[in-house]
Amino acid sequence: MAHYPTRLKTRKTYSWVGRPLLDRKLHYQTYREMCVKTEGCSTEIHIQIGQFVLIEGDDDENPYVAKLLELFEDDSDPPPKKRARVQWFVRFCEVPACKQHLLGRKPGAQEIFWYDYPACDSNINAETIIGLVRVIPLAPKDVVPTNLKNEKTLFVKLSWNEKKFRPLSSELFAELNKPQESAAKCQKPVRAKSKSAESPSWTPAEHVAKRIESRHSASKSRQTPTHPLTPRARKRLELGSNPQMSQQTSCASLDSPGRIKRKVAFSEITSPSKRSQPDKLQTLSLALKAPEKTRETGLSYTEDDKKASSEHRIILRTRIPASKTTDIREERTLTPISGGQRSSVVPSVILKPENIKKRDAKEAKAQNEATSTPHRIRRKSSVLTMNRIRQQLRFLGNSKSDQEEKEILPASEISDSSSDEEEASTPPLPRRAPRTVSRNLRSSLKSSLHTPTKVPKKSLKPRMPRGATPQIRSRSLAAQEPASVLEEARLRLHVSAVPESLPCREQEFQDIYNFVESKLLDHTGGCMYISGVPGTGKTATVHEVIRCLQQAAQANDVPPFQYIEVNGMKLTEPHQVYVQILQKLTGQKATANHAAELLAKQFCTRGSPQETTVLLVDELDLLWTHKQDIMYNLFDWPTHKEARLVVLTIANTMDLPERIMMNRVSSRLGLTRMCFQPYTYSQLQQILRSRLKHLKAFEDDAIQLVARKVAALSGDARRCLDICRRATEICEFSQQKPDSPGLVTIAHSMEAVDEMFSSSYITAIKNSSVLEQSFLRAILAEFRRSGLEEATFQQIYSQHVALCRMEGLPYPTMSETMAVCSHLGSCRLLLVEPSRNDLLLRVRLNVSQDDVLYALKDE
Amino acid sequence: MSSRKSKSNSLIHTECLSQVQRILRERFCRQSPHSNLFGVQVQYKHLSELLKRTALHGESNSVLIIGPRGSGKTMLINHALKELMEIEEVSENVLQVHLNGLLQINDKIALKEITRQLNLENVVGDKVFGSFAENLSFLLEALKKGDRTSSCPVIFILDEFDLFAHHKNQTLLYNLFDISQSAQTPIAVIGLTCRLDILELLEKRVKSRFSHRQIHLMNSFGFPQYVKIFKEQLSLPAEFPDKVFAEKWNENVQYLSEDRSVQEVLRKHFNISKNLRSLHMLLMLALNRVTASHPFMTAVDLMEASQLCSMDSKANIVHGLSVLEICLIIAMKHLNDIYEEEPFNFQMVYNEFQKFVQRKAHSVYNFEKPVVMKAFEHLQQLEFIKPMERTSGNSQREYQLMKLLLDNTQIMNALQKYPNCPTDVRQWATSSLSWL
């Protein structure tokens, strides 16, 4: 294996090759190829999609391996970023140690595994790519070659899904085999370059040391550092976490993350040398905790770390240029030293939590199994240290009962977070592997080292609220999953299926996001009025904004805030809005008047709220009262300096502030307005396409037809989706064989459109009885006679009698005719007065006369 | 001997007949889901597929069943629900909520009813039936908790859906449709209404949330099918205990359906209304004429029943009026003719009547004014005349403006059938100038 130069050692420039390809759904421009130029070196690497690349990771010797799937540029934020989507591979050392035995054999030195874990974030910064690598897939029968002739070749034989190793599926195998030619072409300059940049210090032994370190953590997610202070992170619709990228920005000036990691690791090993006095147990455990934390969350900015790193940087620096033999020796000497200090802490660092667990269970054998690794050094040292830690723990923890340990468990976590606030607020950025188990175990270890006296019971607070929340009883039989393409399409087309991003509303999203974010960052308040006809995505966009902001708040990009949503339509009367806000804000229940007072106190008195409140008021127009006090209050609170309240209001009409609000209310609302235009036909088409992505259920023309029809009528996205859903049903009905996958054609969507939009009046008239039809004729005749659009029943009756006589129908009695009239009235073909007026009731047509004539003519 | 035989025979007949009448009356009065569907197979399939998807896949839906009264909306949904509940995996998994716009006249009552039918009131004790606002938030909370895959689907059936649209702010409809369009507890909202303009009643945001699925029931059958329905409705089922009688009865029904006069009656009914309820009414009246001595329905029965159905109710009342009242009505008719439908008051009618009495001086017709007034008031009570404005206590009743609620042809027809009508009155009715 080579030592891959990271971009910090030699500065690299990244540039796109070729023209951008078609826009993806957002502002993305995709590229097929990227060029990496190394400073001071004339060679360039051309990296194409489909090739295998090395990605800068935590340790320089074992960079991450991945297959490049997509290259694109993210220019949503001013400095455009080069991004890439990859399919990860894992090295054996990246597999959690507890799972390593699942392989059941010794892994090849250059064996990697296809990482089949969809939850893993595959979106990375393209500038973390170091270079190309050759990956050769092996058939299940093949043996992983062990000779290390070509260091830049890796072998993949199995896939790893965090649970077990599986052989590669045949199509995956074929897919992996495909891009080899192109990869091979581009490899030459790479190799030359890497050789020139290769550090002479690289040795297998050092690699072993690295491996030990990397095994400390169960997954890489803990190692990947994220910068807690990046002021304005990306504001894309998917604020997907990207460890690599933030790592780059954060560490550009400091050090490479791998370096930090390494320093930490060494500090752990050597730190006990400082303390030979056993009475400093407390400080020791603190020193232990800190590095562990850094591994867990990747935050390496605690004091302990810095101290440790400064102390041991020298060791590292000297280590790098060391020759092969000395390096081994150093490695060897290092470990015994640490072990020789007999500290309880050192081994715990080296140990994986899983080992500890097993040790707790007193299963020495299993422990040996777990530590059985190809490298003797490691094994020796770890076994040694493990035995020691076991003794130590027995000594420390014998007096404590199991239950106590459990109680301590959350306590120690609390003390952790208090010592390091940043850690507490860091979002879990999982690159890999859920890690709850190991974490708990780890903390249990820590707690056992702690003195058990300082146990705050905070975390044991009962979580259930007093009143049980009501719920519809759950079904005994699971809901069926969609079986066919059409059913799948129908599921996706349902309005409730919230897409991961809202196409065609990027601009609005950005505006609202910026507005709320700026208010959050400035610690001020403000109002915004959002209008638009129903079904244009107002509420959905705001929800999306809030979701992104909440993610950003977790990532510490914006200050944390509280989000409250009220809907005017979900209130029984306007003043209930106070009750709801108060309840969601503080959990208190109060009457409307009292709630208004409490809220006013909360928002208008100095210094009460610590964090900003974002209030979404949907269907604002329903909060209108005669005095308009509700609206006045809602818009008045944010103007108070201390309130820190951001109010987003949504309603349908654009001119609502002018129409129904008093001046003092609309003045407080301000001029931050936004109008959601109805979707155009191309936007609707895009929405449908994005929902039906990778699903061949609709003909293109069918989608277009629906989009055009809806855009012409209302621009309501809900309508569009409903029609398409209906079209799939019609398609399904019309199919004779249920198993043949039919496409929804124009005819189907046409039928659906007709069904939803066509007026039923004409069919109703055509299907009415003879007497009803002649009554309608009589109405027309009476209208023509009088020249008015209205007639009394008596007048129509005389016309009706005459008509019946002409057509040879039996004489209609008054009662019959009245029944006919009221029947037509109940269908609302006619508009009639209440029947107490009897003969004098006035009758009007609810349909145009032409329609009636048309419907009657066909007979 | 023979008389005894006939006696026992008639005894059997009586038993059979009472059974026949029970079966048929049940059929006519109740929309039992056992009866067959006529010509709505497509709509039925649409609805039942929709319900099945909600029940099995947890897909939320909303649909309106629109059709004139008596077109079988309720029968359709009952049929579909019955079929749905027969599926094994569904019957345990589906909750139904039946609401009727005539019963749940506002959202508050409707919410309580929903909570009750969902058996949610047990969850928090009596707290549910607190204020309206609490009810609403309680129910919304309950429905929000669920999701597509794990929650029990709820089928809401809103009868007289148009009346729900008149509730304040349409809160209930908004929330139901909103749930059906969001990833909460899967629900199917089925509205039954006879109004074709129902969508115009919905507020725009409620309308946008409604899926716009409409199932139209239009009574689109023709006369031959109507006769077939008539036959099917009247024939006895195969499981009738007395096979011989049932066979005879059914033969008779078959004969009736081919009878010319019966067909005429049916045609007349069909022309008036395609509503199956009016057919049921006709058959019910005919069935009542069947007795032990007259065990099988005849064409005459049907004709008389038809006559009963198509009777003019007002003309019947006119037959029961006194001569004085008839005279007043005639006077009003003349006033109408003279003043072209302008309203009149008692004094004018009295004057007109006096003119007639004076010309044709006849002691019988010479009534005191209070007596005439009394007769006038009686007419008002029978709603033959209608005051133009509200009756207020202080205004003089003689001068209150009135309008006649009888048509000229109606009066003339009634007079012709009026028993013992004096000839001069009849003459006066034909022409106001006949006294000249």
From TrEMBL, chain A:
Q: Where is the protein found, in the record's own terms?
A: Nucleus
Per its record, how is this protein called by name? Origin recognition complex subunit 1
What this chain does, per the record? Answer: Component of the origin recognition complex (ORC) that binds origins of replication. DNA-binding is ATP-dependent, however specific DNA sequences that define origins of replication have not been identified so far. ORC is required to assemble the pre-replication complex necessary to initiate DNA replication.
Q: Name one Pfam family in it.
A: WHD_Cdc6
From the UniProt entry, list the residue stretches annotated as the region Disordered.
Answer: 183-305, 355-480
Q: How does it assemble?
A: Component of ORC, a complex composed of at least 6 subunits: ORC1, ORC2, ORC3, ORC4, ORC5 and ORC6. ORC is regulated in a cell-cycle dependent manner. It is sequentially assembled at the exit from anaphase of mitosis and disassembled as cells enter S phase. Interacts with CDC6 and KAT7/HBO1. Interacts with LRWD1 predominantly during the G1 phase and with less affinity during mitosis, when phosphorylated.
The family line of this record is: Belongs to the ORC1 family.
- State the species of origin: Pan troglodytes
Assign the protein's first listed, main location to one coarse class.
nucleus
Designated gene of the protein? ORC1
Keyword vocabulary terms for this entry: ATP-binding, DNA replication, DNA-binding, Magnesium, Metal-binding, Nucleotide-binding, Nucleus, Phosphoprotein
| Composition bias, Polar residues | 241-253, 268-285
Q: Name one GO biological process term.
A: DNA replication initiation
TrEMBL record, chain B:
* GO-annotated molecular function: ATP binding; DNA replication origin binding
State the UniProt keywords alphabetically: ATP-binding, DNA replication, DNA-binding, Nucleotide-binding, Nucleus
- GO CC, one annotated term: nuclear origin of replication recognition complex
Instruction: Give the UniProt subcellular location, in the record's own words.
Output: Nucleus
Task: Assign the protein's first listed, main location to one coarse class.
Answer: nucleus
Q: Name one GO biological process term.
A: DNA replication initiation
Q: Which SUPFAM superfamilies match?
A: P-loop containing nucleoside triphosphate hydrolases
Q: Specify the domain of life of the species encoding this protein.
A: Eukaryota
Note the InterPro entries from the entry.
AAA+_ATPase, AAA_16, ORC4, ORC4_C, P-loop_NTPase
User: What residues does the AAA+ ATPase domain cover?
Assistant: 59-202
Summarizing the function annotation, the protein's role is: Component of the origin recognition complex (ORC) that binds origins of replication. DNA-binding is ATP-dependent. The specific DNA sequences that define origins of replication have not been identified yet. ORC is required to assemble the pre-replication complex necessary to initiate DNA replication. Binds histone H3 and H4 trimethylation marks H3K9me3, H3K27me3 and H4K20me3.
- Report the family membership: Belongs to the ORC4 family.
PANTHER family under this entry? Answer: ORIGIN RECOGNITION COMPLEX SUBUNIT 4
Subunit record text: Component of ORC, a complex composed of at least 6 subunits: ORC1, ORC2, ORC3, ORC4, ORC5 and ORC6. ORC is regulated in a cell-cycle dependent manner. It is sequentially assembled at the exit from anaphase of mitosis and disassembled as cells enter S phase. Interacts with DBF4. Interacts with POLQ.
The entry's protein name is Origin recognition complex subunit 4
Recorded name of the encoding gene:
ORC4
